[in-house]
Design brief:
This protein is an alpha/beta fold and 283 residues long. The protein is built from 8 helices and 10 strands. It has a single domain, classed as P-loop containing nucleotide triphosphate hydrolases (Rossmann fold, 3-Layer(aba) Sandwich), CATH 3.40.50.300. The strands form 2 sheets. It has a 6-stranded mixed beta sheet with strand order 6-7-8-3-9-10, with helices on both faces. Strands 2-1-4-5 form a 4-stranded antiparallel beta sheet, covered by helices on one side. Bound molecules: adenosine-5'-triphosphate and magnesium ion.
Length: 283
C-alpha cells in the first residue's frame, strides 16, 4: 500500500478515492524552538461515499490530520490527494465541522445556515429558502429566528451540521462534532447524521474519542497511536448492516466483538496518555 505505487495510477479507475493521505508527516515549529513532529508517515484512504472514523488518545494528532485534509496545514513530508489530485491549498471539496463551535453569535440560526451560500453568490432569498429547508431536515424549523445563545448545545450542533451540509460538499470532515453533548443527545445526533448521510453519501472523515460512536457510525475505524510522531496503527472494517439504529446497535453481538477487538488495540495507546494509571483501572 505504499503511496508511491498508488500515485502512479489514475485514482478514479475502480473505487474513486476521495481522500488519500500518502506518507503524511506533519510538524510544528516556531523559530528558535525544536520542531515538534505530531504525525508521522500516515497512509490512509477514504473512498467516495465511505464513512471512516479516526480514534486515538487525546493529543495524538486527529485534528491535525483533518486540518491537513482541509488544506489548512501542509505536510512536512508526503502528500494529501483529493479525488486523485494533490491538494494545492484549501480543500474546496470539503465541508469542515470544527471541534470548537463556529456559529456566528450575531446571526440567527437561519442566517448562520444561509451564509455559506450567500458568500458563494446565491441570491439571498434562495439561500434563505434552502437554509429553512435544511433547518427543517435537522428538526429545527421552529428555531430559525433564534440566536445561538438561545439554543441548546445539541441544537447548536444541528445548526452547525446544516451549515456545512447546505454547501453540498463532496467530502465531510467532522472533528468530534458531538463532543460536548450528553450521551442521549449524542445518540440522537448520530442517528440524524446517518440518516442524512444515507440520502446522499459523502466521503466522511469523522474524528471521535468515543469508540462506540465510531463503530456505530463508520464503515471503517482507524486507530492512531499516542503521539508524538503518531502513526496509524489499526484499520478495522465495520461490516454491520445499514441502515443502523445507533441506540440499538450496541446490543448486537457483532458490535460487541468488534468493540472488544478494537479496544484491545486502543487501550494500550490511551493508557500512554495516562502513565500513572495501571491497566486494571481502565478495562
Ligand atoms: N499549531 C500547533 N503548534 C504546535 N503544536 C501543535 C499545534 N497544533 C497541534 N499541536 C500539537 O500536535 C499534537 C496533536 O494535536 P491535535 O490537536 O491534532 O490532537 P488531537 O488528537 O486532535 O487531540 P484531542 O483529542 O485532544 O482533540 C498535540 O501534541 C498538539 O499539542
Ligand atoms: Mg482534536
Amino acid at each position: 500500500m505504499r503511496a508511491a505505487a498508488r500515485a502512479e495510477r489514475p485514482d478514479q479507475a475502480v473505487t474513486p478515492r476521495a481522500i488519500g493521505f500518502e506518507g503524511v508527516t506533519i510538524e510544528f515549529g516556531t523559530p528558535g524552538q525544536a520542531v515538534f513532529r505530531a504525525v508521522e508517515g500516515a497512509d490512509l484512504s477514504v473512498a467516495a461515499g465511505e464513512f471512516v472514523a479516526i480514534v486515538g488518545p487525546t493529543g495524538c494528532g486527529k485534528s491535525t490530520l483533518l486540518n491537513a485534509a482541509a488544506g489548512l496545514l501542509t505536510p512536512a513530508a508526503g502528500q494529501v490527494r483529493i479525488f486523485g489530485a494533490p491538494l494545492p491549498g484549501l480543500n474546496r471539496d470539503a465541508g469542515y465541522l470544527f471541534q470548537l463551535e463556529a456559529l456566528m453569535p450575531w446571526k440567527t440560526a437561519l442566517e448562520n445556515v444561509a451564509i455559506g451560500l450567500e458568500i458563494a453568490g446565491t441570491p439571498k432569498r434562495a439561500a434563505r429558502d434552502q437554509a429553512r429547508d435544511w433547518l427543517r431536515r435537522v428538526g429545527l424549523a421552529p428555531f430559525a429566528d433564534r440566536y445561538p445563545h438561545m439554543l441548546s448545545g445539541g441544537q447548536r450542533k444541528r445548526v452547525a451540521m446544516a451549515q456545512v451540509l447546505i454547501r453540498d460538499p463532496k467530502i465531510m470532515l467532522m472533528d468530534e462534532p458531538f463532543g460536548p453533548l450528553d450521551a442521549q443527545t449524542r445518540l440522537i445526533m448520530g442517528d440524524l447524521l446517518l440518516r442524512l448521510w444515507q440520502e446522499n453519501r459523502k466521503a466522511v472523515l469523522f474524528v471521535t474519542h468515543d469508540l462506540e460512536e465510531a463503530i456505530s457510525l463508520a464503515d471503517r475505524v482507524v486507530i492512531m497511536s499516542a503521539g508524538p510522531a503518531a502513526r496509524i496503527i489499526g484499520d478495522f472494517p465495520i461490516n454491520l448492516a445499514r441502515p443502523r439504529d445507533v441506540s440499538e446497535i450496541k446490543l448486537m453481538p457483532e458490535f460487541q466483538a468488534l468493540h472488544r477487538d478494537i479496544w484491545h488495540m486502543l487501550k494500550s495507546e490511551v493508557l500512554k496518555a495516562y502513565p500513572d494509571l495501571t491497566m486494571g483501572e481502565i478495562s
